[in-house]
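Narrative of activities, Objective 1.

The group set out to show that a structural description can be obtained from nothing but a protein's sequence at a throughput compatible with the screening campaign. Below is one input-output pair from the validation batch, recorded exactly as produced.
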Amino acid sequence: MRLIFLILFGMLFLQACKPEKTQPAVPAPAVLQVSEVAALPLEARNTLRLVKQGGPFHYSRDGEVFSNYEHVLPKQARNYYHEYTVKTPGAHNRGVLRIIAGRPGEYYYSADHYKTFKWIRE
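Output recorded for this entry:
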């Protein structure tokens, strides 16, 4: 009986000491969806191209800091994210479509003014 206890205790101890598996470097809170660049609307692909080449941008707020108040995107340091307006067909103002940029190669698309985001996989 004592031997069985020691074996079970040892197994539990070894299980608890296992290092945690590292997750892939994909920013993926459960609420984020993934989208291929080709699946984005043409206007979003055009804005993404402008972001990558540094402009020129059509709206004065393009490039402003996005504060992630909604806490939908992965938590990062202040000033990490920047927002860019995606031309919304039929809108007479900035509309609701946005591209959010983090570090180079890290882009998100929101079709509903920051309620949900799609991580853009390139």
